[in-house]
Design brief:
Elements: H1 2-11, E1 29-34, E2 41-43, E3 57-59, E4 67-70, E5 75-76, E6 87-89, E7 93-94, E8 99-107, E9 110-116, E10 128-131, E11 140-145, E12 153-159, E13 175-184, H2 199-207, H3 213-224, H4 239-250, E14 269-272, E15 280-284, H5 304-312, H6 319-332, H7 353-365, H8 370-378, H9 381-384, H10 393-396, H11 413-424, H12 456-460, H13 479-487, H14 489-505, H15 509-521, H16 527-579, E16 593-595, E17 610-613, E18 617-619, E19 622-626, E20 631-634, E21 644-652, E22 660-667, E23 673-678, E24 686-690, E25 712-719, E26 722-727, E27 730-731, E28 736-737, E29 749-753, E30 767-776, H17 782-789, H18 798-802, H19 807-835, H20 844-856
Antiparallel strand pairs: 1-13, 2-6, 3-4, 5-13, 6-12, 7-12, 8-11, 8-13, 9-10, 9-12, 14-15, 16-30, 17-20, 18-19, 19-30, 20-29, 21-25, 21-30, 22-23, 22-29, 23-24, 25-26, 26-27, 26-28
Helix pairs in contact: 1-2, 2-3, 6-7, 6-8, 11-14, 14-20, 15-16, 15-20, 16-19, 16-20
């Protein structure tokens, strides 16, 4: 009422808007849907109301505005909240080519598209209109070419971003609206909608809930032009209600969504000849397997409910037997039917047909209780038999299909992983939660699975590639498995942790060996095994001493070579530094936040003070990071960020590190992020890191071989879809464009220094010193980057220094640097091996690793 009263007063002072007649000639449409008259299928809270009359509106969820949009008659998903989800689907039709026109609008990444053959994605030949900017929020005719799919069945679909399979952004706001859709055989746009009339009449009709489409269009146009008051300052009476609406709307719970099939109108599909979708044969009615019940389903919808009933029908002989066979397979290592994925003609025949039938009947009688069935199996004589092979079985039943004894088999990949973790004492027993990755100490059931980035350790032990279902895993015994156990640094760390526990728990060497055997193998060690193990520990400890002596020799060589290089380069660098012109910082662009680490982690701009975590410290005018636990975390951002520039002056401790983040902007969950990253994908190269590499490509820049010997200036500019890297003020490699950009919301985003994203650990952390870091709330130009990099006078390139030397000196320096690189590489490799070793547990780490190898190749029973 307050808004209406203010609008009525403003409208009284506005002149009538003359109707603008379209000069376009009427066009002929082969298909025409009016969303106020023609009913489409809807799913989700945003569109469950279906079509609405003209005059419905949406409320602005942020800013000073009150009303976000006023809509004519149609289907709109934002009437309550842009957080509401919605899918709108047209009836199915035969595509005759031409052009699809949709009078539509939207925002936040919602899409309007046509769907062919139920394909859910978009791409080169599957076109869609994505609504993402201010212009897309205004209703207008938007077209898609249909000629490629002539002859196929299609339907039109509008969806919010959270309802796009494999592309969903579950926490993103989005909305769409559509009033008409039509298909024409030419590319001429339909006539534009006329907007005009008396504003006073339009406001009066809106207040009386009798708005026409033309009046709603007029009000929307006046609202966009700012001719109607629309903020709480102009209409203070609406302030309390708007604040209350936003308070409630902001805390509405977001439903958890899972990709699936919507239960809309059913559709029988054609049989494709030899699987070719271009050769459809007769229509095949929806029904169960012909061999069991060929009667077509009499269902108006998909028929999935009827399919579920057929699968669980007691008269169906297959379902219970398939489940029983799979359980038998997991308990005994082989199913009664040896092909658990195939009970058909090409599958194996059951070894114990009557047993399969009896177990299936027991399973059905128990109400489908898997627990009861497993209890029955593991209390059977067959399960309790030993693994000793009877004398005549090798010839009569070499594969032991008749279960005369227990068939030993290797542990599965996940069990191997978890048992090593349990031995190390690092296993995290907490249940439930989000997926984890890398060396997180949780059970394998929580290990995240990315199809094109499978865990290498689990893959070595035959974890199935997640591209299709596998009823029976492959079981191999190959050298790569032993190498994975011996050389994987994660396994070595866990083994070292186990050894340290043993050394701490037991003082006597013999007791230590016996405890390790009991924990790893579940049995006592005999005297011979104890003696052999102690001899192995002694020999391994001696190797460790020898390696430490070799490491000390290498470190001495490294120090000597480094001194030779420094003796030549340091005076030359000092001379160049003294000759640098003093650069006024006023010429540099002003950042949104800046940290110079002169005293503490305060932001010189006053926006984002830093909090040091782990072993991060400020020393000598720099943030010092240890590559393990050190990170600096800012307060929450006070403004939204989209276009931005990340900038830092950084000196690495070593070039032999992969994936540490220098400057990162991330959401506070550490999931979505943009970052300056060193050497994550390619050694010694700078990278624009992002979540799942969505905005990451290689700059194809040169390898940075100086970042560990002097400070370098690195900046990354995010200018819309363009990502540009800079090193020492010059463009680094090439710029590239991304398919999407990341926006970071005020209050829900932060800056990290020294960590790629999330929490420290693994290869997320940086080892080095950050002398200064800056964050800009815009994309800097090339000239601004060049001006900014001179704020720190430490950036003098090695090429500049070498140019001051004689030819002979340059030759010596290059030779020493090459030798130093080789020596440092050996130091790094040997240091990693010795890092896990401690004098107290010398030799026991090697025994622990050997015991783990022995344990994992001891087969079940």
């Amino acid at each position: 009422k307050a808004v209406g009263a203010a609008w009525a007063k403003a409208a009284a002072e506005l002149p009538a808007v003359p109707n603008k007649k379209s000069e376009a000639a009427p066009i002929t449409a082969s298909v025409h849907w009016d969303l106020q008259k023609d009913k489409w299928f809807t799913d989700g809270h945003g569109v469950k109301q279906g079509a609405t009359q003209a005059g419905e509106f949406s409320i602005a969820t942020e800013g000073k505005s009150i009303i976000a949009r006023i809509h004519p008659g149609g289907v709109f998903s934002d009437l309550i909240s842009t957080n509401d989800r919605g899918v709108l689907i047209s009836p199915r039709l035969k595509c005759e080519g031409g052009t699809l026109w949709m009078r539509s609008a939207g925002g936040g990444g919602a899409r309007a598209k046509y769907v062919v053959q139920n394909y859910p994605r978009t791409g080169t030949v599957h076109k869609a209109k994505e609504f993402k900017d201010e212009g897309d929020a205004v209703l207008g005719w938007r077209s898609l070419d249909l000629n490629y799919w002539k002859g196929d069945d299609i339907f039109i679909q509008c969806a919010t971003v959270s309802d796009m399979p494999a592309e969903a952004k579950p926490d993103e706001r989005s909305w769409f609206g559509i009033t008409e859709a039509l298909i024409t055989q030419d590319k001429e746009a339909p006539p534009s909608v006329t907007i005009g009339g008396d504003p006073r009449e339009a406001v009066a009709a809106w207040l009386a809930n009798s708005t026409t489409d033309a009046q709603a269009e007029l009000l929307g146009s006046l609202l966009r032009e700012g001719k109607l008051p629309n903020d709480t300052k102009a209409i203070p009476a609406a302030a309390a209600l708007i604040a209350r609406y936003r308070e409630i709307e902001a805390v509405l719970p977001q439903p958890t969504r899972a990709p699936g099939v919507l239960e809309s109108k059913g559709h029988d599909a054609a049989l494709f000849v030899r699987g070719d979708h271009k050769q459809p044969a007769e229509i095949v009615p929806r029904r169960f397997l012909d061999g069991i019940d060929p009667t077509p389903y009499k269902a108006a919808n998909s028929g999935r409910l009827q399919l579920a009933e057929s699968l669980t029908d007691p008269k169906n002989p297959l379902t219970s037997r398939v489940i029983v066979n799979r359980l038998w397979h997991h308990v005994f290592g082989r199913g009664i039917v040896g092909t658990p994925d195939n009970f058909g003609r090409l599958g194996e025949k059951p070894t114990h047909l009557e047993l399969l039938d009896a177990l299936a009947q027991s399973f059905t009688a128990s109400g489908g209780s898997m627990k009861n069935l497993i209890r029955l199996m593991v209390t059977s004589q067959a399960f309790q038999r030993g693994s000793q092979v009877p004398a005549d079985v090798a010839t009569k039943d070499p594969e032991n299909k008749l279960l005369s004894h227990w068939t030993v088999r290797r542990l599965e990949a996940e069990a191997i992983h978890d048992s090593i973790l349990a031995l190390s004492g690092k296993l995290d027993p907490v249940m439930y939660g989000k997926p984890v990755f890398d060396d997180d100490p949780r059970r394998s059931i929580y290990q995240g699975v990315i199809r094109n980035r499978a865990d290498p350790f689990l893959s070595a032990f035959d974890m199935p590639v997640p591209f299709s279902t596998r009823g029976r895993r492959d079981v191999t015994n190959v050298p790569a498995q032993s190498l994975a156990l011996l050389n994987n640094p994660i396994i070595s760390n866990w083994a070292a942790g186990w050894a340290r526990q043993i050394v701490k728990q037991e003082k006597d060497d013999g007791a230590r060996v016996r405890r390790m055997f009991m924990q790893a193998l579940g049995r006592d060690a005999d005297d011979r095994e104890v003696a052999a193990s102690l001899a192995f520990v002694k020999a391994s400890a001696g190797v460790g001493v020898t390696q430490r002596q070799e490491l000390a020799t290498l470190e001495s060589q490294s120090a000597d070579l480094r001194k030779r290089v420094d003796d030549l380069l340091t005076p030359a660098r000092a001379k160049l530094t003294a000759e640098l012109p003093v650069k006024a910082t006023g010429d540099a662009p002003k950042p949104y936040a800046e940290w110079d680490f002169e005293k503490d982690g305060s932001d010189s701009q006053g926006h984002l003070p830093l909090k040091l975590e782990g072993r991060a410290k400020i020393e000598g005018g720099a943030l010092v990071l240890d590559g393990k636990t050190g990170v600096a975390r800012s307060a929450p951002l006070k403004k939204n960020l989209s276009n931005k520039t990340l900038e830092a002056w950084v000196m690495l401790d070593t070039l032999d590190q992969r994936g540490g983040g220098v400057v990162t902007v991330q959401d506070r969950r550490g999931v979505v992020f943009d970052s300056i990253v060193f050497a994550e994908s390619d050694a010694n190269q700078w990278l624009a890191g992002s979540d799942n590499h969505k905005r990451t490509q290689s700059f194809s820049g040169p390898q940075d071989k100086e970042a560990a010997s002097r400070p370098v200036h690195v900046a990354i500019v995010y200018d819309g879809p363009k990502v540009i890297g800079f090193r020492d003020g010059q463009m680094y490699g090439r710029l590239y464009k991304t398919k999407e950009t990341a926006s970071f919301k005020a209050g829900d985003s932060e800056v990290l220094l020294g960590c790629r994203h999330g929490s420290v650990g693994g290869n997320h952390s940086l080892s080095g010193r950050i002398l200064r870091a800056r964050l800009y709330d815009r994309a800097l130009s090339v000239l601004e980057i060049e001006a900014s990099r001179q704020v720190e006078s430490t950036v003098i390139t090695e090429r500049d220094v070498l140019n001051t030397l004689s030819d002979a000196q340059r030759t010596d320096v290059r030779q020493w640097q090459n030798d130093l690189q080789q020596v440092d590489l050996k130091i790094t490799e040997m240091g990693k091996r010795l890092e896990r070793l401690s004098p107290e547990s010398a030799g026991w780490e090697s025994l622990a690793l050997s015991m783990i190898n022995l344990k994992e190749f001891v087969y079940l029973k």
